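User: What would this chain look like folded?
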Amino acid sequence: MAAVQDEIPGLVIYAVRQPDDQPASIQAQFETFHRLNPWVLRALETLTADYLKRGARRVGIGMLFEVLRWRYVTATEGDDEFRLNNNFRSRYVRLLIERHPEWARAFEVRSLRTE
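Assistant: Here's the prediction, encoded as structure tokens.
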């Protein structure tokens, strides 16, 4: 199995910082992160497709996040720490279902508490 990094040549992770006096909403933070790191969605799609192809009927975004974190950290070297904010889980699930409606029954989706 190829490492996630091998699928993403030239990967650059951008840290997103918001000025302290202007806290951004979770949605705004997610949109910025997703725009700067589109590879995360592609990696989550790959993990989901592989897991479901192996016969799973349900998949948890928490598990996918942890697998992505583990794969990324074990495939890279250096001082840059990979950060994947748990607050973005619900947004990524919605994107996955939007792009792959056939996966809707595989994920449990709850209403958002904040926008």
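The longest helix spans residues 39-53. If you want, I can go into more detail on any region.
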